[in-house]
């Protein structure tokens, strides 16, 4: 690449999202982060699952992998371990990451893989035209819950903290917080380890409960005095029900999976391809 | 005199049966003999009947043997259970003193050599667990297996458990040897003294797959532990980091294949191994690999199914899953190695085919093939050819079409980090650029492209093995690990003048149609032996080639003996 304006990262496909969808905020933020950091797009791999947010790699100039529903994290782990010099992003929705693919989230987090996971949360299944999701509020009425949902919603921030993510933040794709979202994604990208950003990204077509309007009234910036290295404090903040905090909850430094892999190689020793030594096992 | 012998060590899981079998196996291999092992054991860690069988002789061996020449029973139950398999004039080593009377009615002319195995281990050695070493000592004496060779194998295999353990093991071994020497009453007609120095490797099917993967340049392995494929991961976990590779234990099989696809997308040769339940979980991503055209290798070491089934028992019942598993029309290659040496070469084929044609390649092994050890020739690194992925040139990058339509169906694959060939590995149907596209003609074009890749592979590898009389009216056609028993049966039938031709495809998808049609053409009787209940391959042959076949199915969790095949063919020929 020779130019690094946000427009230079526009992909070959036009977004298929509804006009006004929250996901545009995330796409715009990514264009800006790449531009600010003058990232060469050939070194970026964006891995996604299925759903509206999973279509994002099609709209951005970079390498992408639009795989199976819920499986973006394992695929991304394979990419990062195979080529640690790549900037690896995972994008997906609340259904992808907390429903069908929920089993992969803890294992990606506790490995502390050096990549950024952006969970775009619209509190329902948008692509299938409006069914409740793991983050829909209780009693939420939708196509598949005409009499209201029975389940309590999951809390992505609390889970991510418990799972062992070393960078946990919440952003909001509303225009008022777009600059903050750009800053969060930039920090996440700069963080060495597994960084998780929960982005409130409302569906303007099917969600009449969680909307830009409702979120505008709910979101509150995390206080500057918040201690980001204290996991208990971060968890307490996440679990406060009266407010929806946005900003950086938690950030610590720990050896990444890649760094720990190097210790394995050291323990094992660089033996090279010594066939006769391998054959000793069998003679 | 027969050219080979079958030794069976039987007891209870936890009595060290496998270790004793491995020690004798290695000692015999070092004495210049060929090896073919067969073992059965329960899925549980402790308790339940377990046995380790070694067929050994000067010539190459292809099946586990029809009956037992030398039976070692570590306890009375094992003796009662296994006696039926012992030859009329076989040698029996059971736990007891010379006065010992056998429980079961017994009229065989066996040479009975009771050894007080438990007593020697518990009282003289002082360690009950050393029973297996007492047995090895007795075997060494009675079969003339070289004392010092066994002694050094025991040292290698057990010294890391500490000098105290090794000392006790060696003592138990010596006491077993001495007891047999003093108390044997009859001359023993078996001599397994050294006949030369073996240059061969004695290796299991799973180890051969792991070794072949490493030697063909694979540096990424992800898997979830599952019997009977786990030892493949353990071997790679030990050895892959030394050559700059990575082994990841994933949280489940879906994740394991996901990681493999991610690593391959990033340019690495990658694979995973599992068994039936794991393959069931992987099928969605197999479809993604097919659709997004990602080179990937998946080993299925089949076990008894369905459900959790019989984890430690063999079966060939995943054929349909491997051939058809996943929704939609998904092109893939399925390979079926026929023996341990073939495992080594088929995984190299698997990597070469997957890299060249950018699709998933499934290898169908099974528990008996994965866990048995055979003597194989030492593979030479220089003989191993590695196919490279087709990469885009500089001019192709300018208007890069990841899924460009080509005559052979293979399109150049850009690798992240290398150049500006940005594209999305696309699970949705897509156009040549990888952009989602649901146009009816496009779907047809792209599906045809993905299947076109299968048309040329006959130029890359040996698609099948065929032997016997071409004009024979009787044929045997099977797949995978049953080939050894079929080969042994064939040789016996051939020597007796029965005209039989045998056909084993190594590639089950795409099948070598022309060669199979030629084979089937003039046959009146076609036997299809399979270790499954429904005859999955027989059904495929009937449907595809419209030819009546005679299925021979067993599904007891153990492999065919040559005798079973031989008897069936004779019965069909004499009908």
TrEMBL record, chain B:
Domain (Pyruvate flavodoxin/ferredoxin oxidoreductase pyrimidine binding): residue spans on this chain: 212-447
Pfam families, per database record: PFOR_II, POR, POR_N
Domain called Pyruvate/ketoisovalerate oxidoreductase catalytic: residue spans: 14-178
GO-annotated molecular function: oxidoreductase activity, acting on the aldehyde or oxo group of donors
Domain of life, per lineage: Bacteria
InterPro entries: 2-oxoacid/accept_OxRdtase_asu (IPR022367), PFOR_II (IPR033412), Pyruvate:ferred/Flavod_OxRd (IPR050722), Pyrv/ketoisovalerate_OxRed_cat (IPR019752), Pyrv_Fd/Flavodoxin_OxRdtase_N (IPR002880), Pyrv_flavodox_OxRed_cen (IPR002869), THDP-binding (IPR029061), Transketo_C/PFOR_II (IPR009014)
Oxidoreductase listed as a keyword: yes
UniProt keyword Ribonucleoprotein present: no
Keyword line: Oxidoreductase
GO biological process per UniProt: response to oxidative stress
Start and end residues of each Pyruvate:ferredoxin oxidoreductase core domain: 472-541
NCBIfam families: OAFO_sf (TIGR03710)
Protein's name according to its UniProt entry: 2-oxoglutarate ferredoxin oxidoreductase alpha subunit
Biological classification of the source: Bacteria, Pseudomonadati, Planctomycetota, Candidatus Brocadiia, Candidatus Brocadiales
């Amino acid at each position: 690449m020779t130019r690094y304006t946000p427009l230079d990262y526009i992909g070959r496909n036009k977004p298929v999202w509804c006009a006004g969808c929250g996901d545009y905020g995330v796409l715009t933020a990514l264009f800006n982060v790449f531009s600010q950091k003058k990232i060469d797009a050939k070194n970026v791999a964006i891995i996604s699952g299925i759903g509206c947010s999973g279509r994002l790699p099609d709209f951005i100039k970079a390498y992408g992998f639009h795989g199976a529903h819920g499986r973006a994290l394992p695929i991304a782990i394979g990419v990062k371990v195979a080529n640690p010099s790549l900037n690896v992003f995972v994008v997906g929705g609340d259904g992808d990451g907390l429903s069908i693919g929920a089993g992969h989230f803890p294992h990606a987090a506790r490995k502390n893989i050096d990549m950024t996971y952006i969970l775009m949360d619209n509190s329902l299944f948008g692509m299938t035209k409006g069914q409740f999701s793991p983050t829909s509020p209780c009693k939420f009425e939708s196509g598949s819950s005409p009499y209201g949902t029975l389940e309590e919603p999951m809390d992505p921030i609390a889970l991510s903290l418990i799972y062992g993510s070393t960078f946990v933040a919440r952003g909001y794709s509303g225009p008022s917080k777009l600059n903050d979202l750009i800053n969060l994604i930039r920090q996440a990208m700069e963080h060495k380890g597994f960084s998780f950003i929960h982005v409130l990204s409302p569906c303007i077509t099917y969600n009449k409960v969680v909307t830009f309007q409702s979120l505008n009234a709910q979101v509150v910036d995390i206080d500057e005095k918040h201690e980001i290295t204290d996991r208990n404090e971060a968890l307490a903040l996440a679990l406060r029900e009266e407010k929806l905090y946005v900003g950086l909850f938690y950030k610590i430094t720990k050896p990444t999976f890649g760094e720990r892999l190097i210790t394995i190689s050291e323990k094992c020793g660089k033996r090279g391809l010594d066939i006769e030594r391998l054959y000793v096992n069998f003679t | 005199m027969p050219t080979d012998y079958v030794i069976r060590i039987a007891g209870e899981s936890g009595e060290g049966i496998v270790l004793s079998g491995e020690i004798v196996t290695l000692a015999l291999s070092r004495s210049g003999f060929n090896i073919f092992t067969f073992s059965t054991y329960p899925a549980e860690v402790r308790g339940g009947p377990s046995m380790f069988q070694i067929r050994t002789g000067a010539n190459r061996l292809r099946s586990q043997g029809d009956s037992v020449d030398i039976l070692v029973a570590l306890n009375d139950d094992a003796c009662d259970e296994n006696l039926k398999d012992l030859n009329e004039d076989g040698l029996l080593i059971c736990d007891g003193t010379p006065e010992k009377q056998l429980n079961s009615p017994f009229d065989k002319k066996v040479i009975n050599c009771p050894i007080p195995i438990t007593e020697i281990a518990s009282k003289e050695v002082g360690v009950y667990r050393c029973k297996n070493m007492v047995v090895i000592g007795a075997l060494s004496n009675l079969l003339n297996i070289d004392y010092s060779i066994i002694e050094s194998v025991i040292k290698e295999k057990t010294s890391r458990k500490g000098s105290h353990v090794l000392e006790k093991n060696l003592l138990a071994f010596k006491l077993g040897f001495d007891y047999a020497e003093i108390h044997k009453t009859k001359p023993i007609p078996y001599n397994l003294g050294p006949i030369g120095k073996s240059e061969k490797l004695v290796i299991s099917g799973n180890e051969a797959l792991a070794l072949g993967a490493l030697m063909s340049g694979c540096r990424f392995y992800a898997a979830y532990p599952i019997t009977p494929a786990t030892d493949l991961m353990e071997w790679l976990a030990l050895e892959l980091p030394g050559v700059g590779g990575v082994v990841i234990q994933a949280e489940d099989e879906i994740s394991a294949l996901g990681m493999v696809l991610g690593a391959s997308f990033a340019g690495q040769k990658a694979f995973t191994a599992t068994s039936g339940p794991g393959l069931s979980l992987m099928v969605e991503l197999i479809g993604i690999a097919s659709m997004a055209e990602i080179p990937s290798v998946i080993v299925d070491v089949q076990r008894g199914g369905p459900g959790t089934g019989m984890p430690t028992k063999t079966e060939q019942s995943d054929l349909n899953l491997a051939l058809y598993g996943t929704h939609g029309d998904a092109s893939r290659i399925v390979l079926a190695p026929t023996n341990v040496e073939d495992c080594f070469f088929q995984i190299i084929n698997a990597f070469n085919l997957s890299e060249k044609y950018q699709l998933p390649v499934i290898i169908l092994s099974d528990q008996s093939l994965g866990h048995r050890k055979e003597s194989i020739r030492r593979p030479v690194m220089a003989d191993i050819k590695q196919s490279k992925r087709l990469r885009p040139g500089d001019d192709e990058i300018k208007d890069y079409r990841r899924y460009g339509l080509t005559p052979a169906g293979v399109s150049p694959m850009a690798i992240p980090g290398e150049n500006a060939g940005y594209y999305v590995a696309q699970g949705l149907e897509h156009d040549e650029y990888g952009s989602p596209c649901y146009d009816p003609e496009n779907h047809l074009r792209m599906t045809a492209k993905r299947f076109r890749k299968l048309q040329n592979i006959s130029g890359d590898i040996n698609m099948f093995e065929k032997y016997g009389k071409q004009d024979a009216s009787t044929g045997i056609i099977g797949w995978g690990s049953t080939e050894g028993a079929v080969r042994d049966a064939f040789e016996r039938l051939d020597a007796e003048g029965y005209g039989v031709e045998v056909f084993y495809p190594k590639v089950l998808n795409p099948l070598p149609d022309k060669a199979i049609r030629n084979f089937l053409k003039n046959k009146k009787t076609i036997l299809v032996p399979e270790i499954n209940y429904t005859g999955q391959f027989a059904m495929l042959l009937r449907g595809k080639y419209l030819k009546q076949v005679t299925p021979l199915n067993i599904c007891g969790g153990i492999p065919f003996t040559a005798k079973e095949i031989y008897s069936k063919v004779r019965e069909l020929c004499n009908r």
